[in-house]
Amino acid sequence: MSVTDGSLTTDGAQQTVRIVGTVTTTPGGTQTVAGTVTANQGTPAAIANAWPIKFSDGTSTVNIALPGPNLGAGMVATTGSLVSSAALTAASGTGAGAVTDFGSGKQNITLVVTAGAGVSAGVVALEVSQDNTNWYRSTSSLTQSAPGVTQANQGGAWRYARANVTTAITGGTVSATLMAS
Which residues of 81-109 are buried (b: 16+ CB within 10 A; e: fewer)? Predict the structure, then answer.
């Protein structure tokens, strides 16, 4: 059988057709394929739009970070968070929020607290740890006296951090995020 231009009509029974060259189909048509289909993901995007790569064993994900210019041209793999991490969400009562594991010791840790509408009092402290057991409270606790955003920083070498509401929030709630470098 040979078709060079036009359509191929069958009687509905299973047919095997080998096609060499290009196949054009009618838009909206359905093609059923048995066997292997190979697809090309296309031209790579610019780095700014590149697809992220994650390494995982199915349970944990490893983050890849490029070290600073003084550390050579290697890559660093960490198991902790490399992006902003929620420490408190709509909190008002006293107590520590979620612990962020940065995967390795970080020199600079920043806590950003956002006080919601109605907040008139309360204190949120930045706490850091090297072992997730013994906690050091930063001397720059954040007093919340009005809605808005405040920030505390802690230097040193700390792997873990958390926000801790040390004086209850009055009139509303606060949320907080942690970031490290």
Answer: bbeebebbeebbeeebbebbebbeebeeb
Residue 40 corresponds to which tokens in the numbers above? Answer: 């090309």
pLDDT in tens, 122-141: 999 999 999 999 999 988 89
Q: Is residue 174 part of a domain?
A: yes
The reply to whether 99 falls in a domain is yes
How far lies 51's CA from each of 30, 45, 75, 142, 163, in Å? 30, 8, 18, 38, 32
Res. 168: pLDDT tops 90: yes
What is the average per-residue pLDDT within 50-69? 64
Residue owning tokens 């490290």? 180
**Stretch 139-149: mean pLDDT:** 92
Structural domain harbouring 172:
85-180
For residues 96 and 164, the answer to whether their CB atoms sit within 8 Å is yes
Q: Is residue 159 part of a domain?
A: yes
20 domain residue, yes or no: no
Number of domains within the chain: 1
